[in-house]
Amino acid sequence: MIGGEGAFHIKWAMKSTMHLKQINIAFTLLEVLIATTIFSLVATALYTTFRVGVRAYESGEKEIVRMQHARVIFDTISRDLRSVYSLPETSYNNNLRNSLVRFEQMKLRAETEGRLDEFLFGDRNNPDDQGAPNPYDSFIEINLDFKATDGGGMDSMTFVRYQYDDGVTRIQPWSLGRITYSVENGELVRTEEDIFQPRKDKEGNVIEEKLPRREVLARGLVKFDVHFGYFRDDDWMESDDWDSTAKRYRNPMEELDEEDPLYQEKYRREQMKPVDGLPAFVRIKLEIEDEGHKRSARVAAAAGENADTAQRGSRRIYSSLIRVPTAQENYIPSLDKDMNDER
Fold this sequence. Notes:
Blueprint: H1 4-25, H2 29-82, H3 94-112, H4 116-121, E1 147-149, E2 156-162, E3 176-184, E4 187-193, E5 213-219, E6 221-232, E7 235-239, E8 242-243, H5 263-271, E9 281-290, H6 297-302, H7 307-310, E10 314-323, H8 335-342
Antiparallel strand pairs: 1-2, 1-8, 2-3, 3-4, 4-5, 6-7, 6-9, 9-10
């Protein structure tokens, strides 16, 4: 049994303990502010780190997509150029050319005799008379040229490639297709058609329109710059355009003086020079603008740029050097050397 004085001490101790517990449960205003500030700083740091990580991930994903897109473009062009098919102009269309020569001779004779209309269109009094037969209807005219034009950063090139019949992909007649790369309204376009020339009338005017297969390889194209490499005078050279039937780069024609006693001999020698044929390699540079990364005018103004610059998206430049295996050169210059020269 606990006496009265002992019970009094126990009750007092219990009340004192409960009072202390009530005091320890509460926080002062200063403690709450400090805790809130610390929590805010930690949350802000975590959010900033997370946001930077997400942006880096998204930026990396988009860059991978851009690189993959550029790789697909260069793979497509590379497959076409590595399968290029070309023959000297004198090895085809010979029968047609001979027929056209004879037709022109008969046309000139008819014009001299004053019966050109009758020669071309026949006797008006005889409905069955259609005039001289159209030489273009008797032969199939084809074109195997490799040509490219310099468009000041918007170049174009066209050539014929051999197509492999895999049983799935639709191929052109004779397994030869004419491929054309051009720029249309900021788009890199690849077209494919057969190698047959459009139908022509007796005077050589085109009377048939061809509709090639069209494929857009890239949008937002800022530059499509193409150069063609060849070897001459113990050195590699490049040109802005190309014509496989011309004599401009590998074997340029010399200017001759008609008063020179040896003019005829030199002229025959110049005519015997081979044509340029196919280039050894093709160097392609693409500059593509990403429309999804245009900056606002406010951001551009803060960076000290004008409104026109703000409307430009982020641009990427991609380049590749593609060898043409069927060219007369059996190798191409070192890529490391080319990169050092560009720097």
